[in-house]
Design goal:
31% helix; 376 residues; alpha+beta; 6-stranded mixed β-sheet
Length: 376
Amino acid sequence: MSHPTIALAQALIARESVTPEDAGCQNLMKDLLEQCGFTNETMVFEDTTNLWSRRGNEQPVFCFAGHTDVVPAGDLSLWQTPPFEPVIKDNMLYGRGAADMKGSLAAMLVATQRFVKDHPDHKGSIAYLITSDEEGPFINGTTRVIDTLEARNEKIDMCIVGEPSSSHQLADIVKNGRRGSISAKLTFHGKQGHVAYPDHVNNPIHLAMPVLDQLSTTHWDEGNEYFPATSFQITNIEGGTGALNVVPQTVTAWFNLRYSTELTDKSIVEKIENIIESHNLAYDIEWTYNGKPFITEPGSLVNSVQTAIKQVTGKHAELSTSGGTSDGRFIAPTGAQVIELGPLNKTIHQVNECVNCDDLKGLTEIYYLSLVNALT
């Protein structure tokens, strides 16, 4: 007989929920949660379906957060098996979303079912915040649900986001924070003309080079005990008319900073714009604020989770803030303790995405014991 976590993960993977589609995943989850005494609230914002589900009315609120949407499968010919037909081979469960993050959702639900059965009178409340917008533009998902909860003063105290955090073995890494992310599109304006008449042109590419060099060599901070030093990266440069004998009118550079709690988005914008202004150039800049940095220091949530991991794996998990962003960045600013814990991230967003079945069973046990440690 299949383990309930594996069976549920297969059922979720079989639903082709390419972002922002949910494809019925949340309905499946709602049915299981309702059987455990949860009250379900579907929140639809534009093209995105979200679920807020809660059992209990008291604090603390222990929340499982995640997403039902997945990235596109890509070239189907590169998959060993169809991406939305879950297959188990050599104890590995294959399918789009197996690791990111339908396996985690299944483990959360099975752990919750067991916990409610074993501890029907647990302390506080258990909640689920599920979106179908995490892999997309992330504007109508978790952030909109959090806005709704904040407007009615409904607070999350502790939150586990089921992102695939593990690196080499299950639960070796727990993400207890993330760097902030801010991006910009920077356009320099010059004067177009024939390359043979340099006195008739003002080459924006030449103008841009000293500015971009200064930005790329600027020392931003040293980081701190939780975060590495801030990183500035130019990701794309676009200029030219396509002709080899024409100086273009404009050149555009895109860049991103992943920054620590030593900086704020306001301080970054001010410093970069001051550097550009010092060169006395004509320019336009458009900023995109992807998320602020956050950190969850050791406390009730971190201790509950690390104890659970030690109980299951016998090892102590490393706390880390490495990697990209997650929906935790929308939850942490409300004052919630937030960590990310899920299976290995080795195959996420790749063809033949897969997760070890034993890891999903172990993850279920870790989630269960985290609940026990936090709410009993």
